[in-house]
Amino acid sequence: MNHSYVLAAGTNTDEVARETIFWILCFASIGAALAMILVRRAVHCAMMLAVVMLALATMYAMQGAPFLAFVQIIVYTGAVLMLFLFVIMLIGISSADSVTETIKGQRMAAGLVAIGFFVILILGVGHAALGPATRPTAANGTNNLSGLATLIFTTYVFPFEVTGALLITAALGAMVLAHRERTAPRPTQRQLAARRLESGHMAPDPSPGVYALHDAADRPALLPDGTTSELSVSTVLAPRGVAEEPPSVPPQKEPEAITAESGHEPAPSGRADT
Amino acid sequence: MSPVHYVSLAVILFVIGAVGVLVRRNAIVIFMCVELMLNACNLAFVAFASMHGNLDGQVIAFFVMVVAAAEVVVGLAILMAIYRARRSASVDDANLLKY
Q1: Which of B2, B37, B50, B93 to mutate to test the interface with A (most CBs of A within 10 A)?
Q2: Which of A111, A155, A205, A267 is the most exposed place for a label (fewest CB within 10 A)?
Q3: CA A238 to CA A246: how far, in whole Å?
Q4: What's chain B's Rg over C-alpha atoms?
Q5: Is A81 domain-assigned?
Q6: Is the domain defined by B3-86 classed in CATH 1.10.287.3510?
Q7: Do B50 and A4 touch (CB under 8 A)?
Q8: What pLDDT, in 10s, does the model give residues A17-44?
């Protein structure tokens, strides 16, 4: 520990502070990783993963890898995690995991395997002769960034170019996989109009929250007779348990009460008893 | 901190990620756990680089990041295709090869 160094990251702190930071980050990342496999919703899982990634980025900076620290934040936390959140948003309600065990005893077996795996890895780390951190040699360049650039464009130039090919292939693959062939011809405007006439509901769906006590997307709109309109609430909200099922205003309620509680201007057609 | 601490933390994170891959049923969450494992590997690489005093480990970690980004792009596209076909992101529902 005596020869450890901090390179170019701007964190020229002393040893005690670095140990403190390490242990805080250590417990934060382990706790977040455990929470990742324990929380049910995929969005919370992504947030926990962000905590782990940011903690690891700080650790890279502490270990003299400022370039990797910033790549970690920009590429991982910025791009990759946003991509995850985007797909969670597209996939929507089914992103909550079911807690039922489909294979009997799978969790117990997974825990046992993990413990065995952990013991093997820790034994390997313990047996390996891991020395203290050493100062970078002069052959690695004057600082982290130019040293990395020298390595990437000299020793590792072929893997670097292969990486370029890989990225192009990945982009093509994503385009091919995300592309969907249209199986039916695109309906014309006339067909769309005929379909709308057949449905018996020609106007657009009413907006949620109109004339209700709360102007929110999960509250159904009030119809002129005081009942609520199921059409006004998005159908994905009900299975998620977000939408308020009971009508926000009882049908027989006085219109004065509505205006007093809602606090905004009622339109004349929204009165309950007229 | 000595590299042993960092490598031990990497081991712990890797095992937690492996448990997540084994236990969880949602394909997106499984994917995130794979990312956690890759991050743990990167941490070990950076620790080894600082132990040896050269930058080769950091270059390898950089390549791991690039490959992980490509993997995420293709994996999430596959996930979207499966979701469109089967209306579910659960790995239990993708069982067409089973029967």
Answers
A1: B50
A2: A267
A3: 12
A4: 17
A5: yes
A6: yes
A7: yes
A8: 888 999 999 999 999 999 998 988 888 9
